[in-house]
Amino acid sequence: MTRKAKGLDDGIKRWETFHKKPHRKLIKTKLVWPKKWGRLGEAETTYYQSGKWYKNKVVRYYHDHSAGVVCYHPLGYCDGLTPEKPPVVEWPETGAILGNFLGWDVQPSDGKLARKGELLEAEPDSAGSLLCASPDGHLLFVVEHGKITGLLVGKSLKVEAEGIDG
């Protein structure tokens, strides 16, 4: 799904592309990706806040996803996940911080987590959760207290200068 992941230099370029200014916020330690994942369902909306467009002002944003963007969490993060390996070719070593993660709306994969037609509201466990993008811009992931707790993957997903696409 994602192209060959790249390192710190490409993470810096992704941050600068998204924020349209010299980089300041990049994950500087090598990411440790969970080995086992569970599929939560198809992502409908991502909520986050960022100071991307305004100096000294943080704004809340939401992005409605295209069909086929799937939400994963590490197995054990929450009950009822369907075990499934995300379609990631190579896990990136770093990520560009897009802003503070506020939550996802997800259409569950099966009836274990919510009734058919009901959306799950996946919220972070802490206020310090970060929404990040892989250096190639094809993965979105959440980091809480130094651990990766969520992942979005989809063929149409891409982080560009205008924001999240797909």
Structural overview:
- It is globular and about 45 Å long.
- The protein has one domain.
- With 166 residues, the chain is mostly beta strands.
- It has one helix and eleven strands, in the order αβββββββββββ.
- The strands form two sheets. It has a six-stranded antiparallel beta barrel with strand order 1-3-9-8-7-5.
Side-by-side strand order of the widest sheet: 1-3-9-8-7-5
Sequence of secondary-structure elements: HEEEEEEEEEEE
Strand content: 35-45%
Domain module tally: 1
- Report the average pLDDT across residues: 80
Parts with pLDDT < 50 across at least 5 consecutive residues? 1-5
Number of strands: 11
Q: How large, in whole angstroms, is the Cα Rg?
A: 15 Å
Helix count, DSSP H or I runs of 4 or more residues? 1
Short recap of the structure:
The protein is mainly beta.
Protein topology:
Elements lengths: L7 H12 L17 E14 L8 E6 L5 E5 L7 E2 L12 E13 L11 E3 L7 E4 L5 E6 L2 E7 L4 E3 L2 E3 L1
Antiparallel strand pairs: 1-2, 1-3, 1-4, 1-5, 3-9, 5-6, 5-7, 7-8, 8-9, 10-11
